[in-house]
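QA checklist item 7 of 12: single-chain prediction sanity check.
[x] sequence parsed
[x] length recorded as 437
[x] structure emitted
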Amino acid sequence: MTTTGEDHERALTGPWWWARRRSAVLDGSLALVSAVECAAEGVPFAREAGIPASVGIVFGLIAGAVLLVRRKWPIAVVLVAIAITPAEMGFLMGVVGLYTLAACELPRRVIGSLAGMSLLGTAVVTFVRVRQDMARGDLTLGDWFVPFAAVTTALGLTAPPVLLGLYVGARRRLMESLRERADSLERELQLLAERAEERAEWARNEERTRIAREMHDVVAHRVSLMVVHAAALQAVARKDPEKAVRNAALVGDMGRQALTELREMLGVLRAGEGVGRRAAAVPLAAVGEAAVAAASRVAEAEGAAEGPCLSELEELVGQSAAAGMVVDLSVEGEVRSYAAEVEQTAYRVVQEALTNVHKHAAGAKTHVRLAHRVSEIAMQVENEPPPEPASASAAGLPSGGNGLVGMRERVLALGGVFVSGPTDAGGFRVSAVIPAA
């Protein structure tokens, strides 16, 4: 299991400068052993120095106990060990102090200087002691043994702890950097998760807005025509039964078309809902793959429910004409196909504009113009003033005020331009230009 920086900080439960209690126990044990060693070595030192043995023992106890602060002041421990080297005491303190010094985050020149001092002091003391032993006759080896013993002893007591300390310090710094990197990665993952939630919420809002526009376009246009035909059916039911039958058939056809389009949109909603439930169970590490899969499934579902296209524009105009509207359609430029979202948006703009004419200017003559240009497609729906301003309210067609907003959102989403407003003649004009690409 990876330990993060916060967990590491919470694990610092030791007293004073120790990170953990076991570290304090270890340093206390080492200091106790070092104090006993120095006290034992203080007896011959006191005998040679001509001082009482008790003084040598107390001096050894105090000097050896300095090892207790090796983590706090490693330089002081090494200096004390170098200072008592001539007394031939503090070997454990010197080894542990050099290891601690090398493992600390100190400049290499400081570590090298103190290690060199310890090496030199140990070599000199060993050289002097071995030479004295040979002079007394305790050793009968040749003169070559004196420098050999001095160098070997000094290297043996200095090099291993220094090298081990450098290795442990490098490993400790590596683990610390890895821990910090894990912390940063964890924070980045949290940030990515928050951003993913924000993007998901934004996508849901956009999808709700899109579905609301589709529902508005389908229901408003089809139902408006159905209401108009129903009113005409009621007016001519007794006078012209054949026309009433035709109007009733048109109402049925439009109702079936409205139900078909609503059923297609509900199919897309069900497909997207299933994808959302499956994506919610995907772990954070697979968010990218799940998002791609979800997008592809939703795209397939939307592809299965194909929307209207410009080839159906004449049928749309014909439906309005069958409902009693005087409407003409003019197409300029070379007819060609566009991307599905471009054709659907152009169709919906014309559809919603005709619906508004049915609602607010029933009976007004309407002109629908479609222009295929080099890099864009333009459409305009303009109606003349209605002959009877009260006819719209008489037909009972309510208005929610969302039609123009929905058209503007559709066009702007594709990078187009949308303009609507009354004309000088008293009518109303809706114009839109959508990039072809």
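[x] summary fact logged: Residues 1-6, 278-305, 390-395 have pLDDT under 50 and may be disordered.
[ ] second reviewer sign-off
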